[in-house]
Amino acid sequence: MTHKKDPARPGNRRLNIAGFARDEDGSMILFSLYLFMAILLIGGISVDIMRNEFSRLGLQNTVDTAVLAAADLDQRLDPTAVVEDYFDKAGLRDHLNSTTVVENINSRTVTADSSVDVSTLFMHTLGISSMPARAFGTAHEEISDIEISMVLDISGSMGSDGRLPRMKNAARSFVNTVLSDERTAGAAGEVSLSIVPYSTQVNVGSGIAEQLTLDYTHDYSHCVDLQDGDYDHTELPQEVRNQTGHFDPWTRTSPISKPVCRNDAPFIVQPVTENRNALLAQIDALDPDGNTSTEIGAKWGAALLDPSFRPVTQGLVDAGKVDPTFDNRPFDYNHPNSMKVLVLMTDGANTTQYELRDEFSGGLSDVWGYQDSRGRWRFSVDHPENGWEDGDWTANERWYLPASDSWNNTRDGGDANTKQLTYPELWASASTQYNAYYMWYRQNNNSQVYYDWYYAPYRTISARTKDNRLVEICNAAKANGILIFTVAFEITDEDARLMKQCASSPNHYFDVEGDEIIYAFSAIASTINQLRLIQ
Question: Is the pTM of this model over 0.85?
Answer without folding.
Answer: no
